[in-house]
Design brief:
Layout: H1 2-15, H2 17-24, H3 30-51, H4 53-57, H5 61-89, H6 92-98, H7 101-111, H8 122-150, H9 158-188, H10 194-223, H11 231-234, H12 243-271, H13 274-279, H14 282-296, H15 302-322
Helix pairs in contact: 1-12, 1-14, 2-5, 2-14, 3-5, 3-10, 3-12, 5-6, 5-9, 5-10, 6-8, 6-9, 7-8, 7-9, 8-15, 10-12
Length: about 325
């Protein structure tokens, strides 16, 4: 269990990077950030695929189909929605909604577990979930107040804010489905190692991301000159206004947040019950907050620190709830 929790912590630290990238590259459409990230992921995955080619070759057609579905929903759809939501509504609202994932995933996976060991009695799960939810509400209430104060000049319209929130819900749905299905697949087909499965998902993502990236370029070309072109034409396809910054950011996300983060999460998925692993996604929220405050150059408010303490307490109680009782 300890190695599984540490793997989930490492994945969360790496995944937190994806929340600040749309703020570092604000003039890049969310879908481009998603396609760029996963093109990089797929290209990087070619290297471990070569060294792991014997086990990659043993994957069956159904394994590749499963990897493709996971890549489409958990990679491309999730990050396209998240990046777009952050750029429309700023980071706080999408972070608040994504921050509910530990609760949503735990409830969904505990509702219909694949194995008896995947679930526990609801009365044991209720207290950790309530503490985590309270922590998330405290953290995000403070962030929402910060957003309201900074947005008093009307930099974003209510329509953009609402649209960003709705798109963030798509990201929540995608990443509720992904870890549950990924965990269940790995527990059924235990012969597939976490590193092989991470590489397979990278390889499955590459053609999808390439098609999407080139498709966006064709769409932008067709839209050019039309009255409603908007941000589609504003983006300078294929590498945007700051190509080097974009390439470095995508390479960092592709290597750390995608390949290594997926590897660590696969390891956690193999070693932990799905309901517990779902709650440990709270590490992603904590990491995103840490990086956001570093980028902002300010210290978190006391309300946020209290919320973080509650988040950590809830996760600790959840880990203890899933530990077997000695006989």
């Amino acid at each position: 269990m300890l190695s599984g929790v540490l793997a989930a912590l490492g994945a969360g630290l790496l995944w937190g990077l994806v929340f600040i990238t749309p703020l570092i590259l604000p003039d890049y459409p969310g879908v481009i950030l998603s396609f760029g990230r996963y093109v990089a992921f797929g290209v990087i995955a070619l290297i471990p695929a070569w060294f792991d080619r014997q086990r990659i070759a043993q994957l069956r057609r159904q394994d590749w189909l499963a990897a493709g579905k996971l890549a489409l929903v958990g990679n491309l759809i999730y990050y396209s929605a998240l990046a777009s939501a952050i750029q429309l509504a700023d980071a706080p609202l999408p972070t608040m909604l994504i921050g509910t994932l530990p609760v949503v995933i735990a409830i969904c996976s505990n509702w219909s577990p694949l194995y008896p060991g995947d679930s526990i009695a609801w009365n044991k799960l209720a207290l950790p979930l309530l503490i985590i939810l309270a922590g998330l509400l405290l953290v995000n209430a403070s962030e929402m107040a910060h957003f309201t104060k900074d947005n008093s000049s009307g930099q974003r319209s209510i329509a953009e804010y609402v649209k960003g929130g709705l798109i963030a819900l798509v990201a929540v749905a995608a990443w509720t489905w992904y870890p549950i299905m990924n965990s269940r697949y790995m527990k059924v087909y235990t012969h597939i190692s976490s590193s092989t499965w991470a590489t397979a998902q990278g390889l499955a993502t590459l053609p999808l991301a390439l098609i999407g990236y080139l498709g966006y370029g064709l769409f932008a070309q067709l839209k050019r000159g039309s009255a409603d072109a908007g941000s589609v034409v504003a983006f300078h396809f294929p590498l945007g206004s700051t190509p080097l910054k974009f390439i470095v950011a995508m390479a960092v996300l592709g290597l750390l947040a995608s390949w290594l983060g997926t590897l660590l999460w696969n390891l956690a998925s193999q070693k932990l019950p799905t309901s517990l692993a779902g709650q440990l996604i709270v590490f992603e929220t904590l990491s995103a907050l840490l990086y956001a405050f570093i980028l902002r150059g300010s210290l978190p408010a006391p309300q946020i620190l209290i919320g973080v303490v509650l988040l950590c307490a809830g996760v600790t109680l959840a880990v203890r709830a899933f530990q077997p009782v000695p006989h």
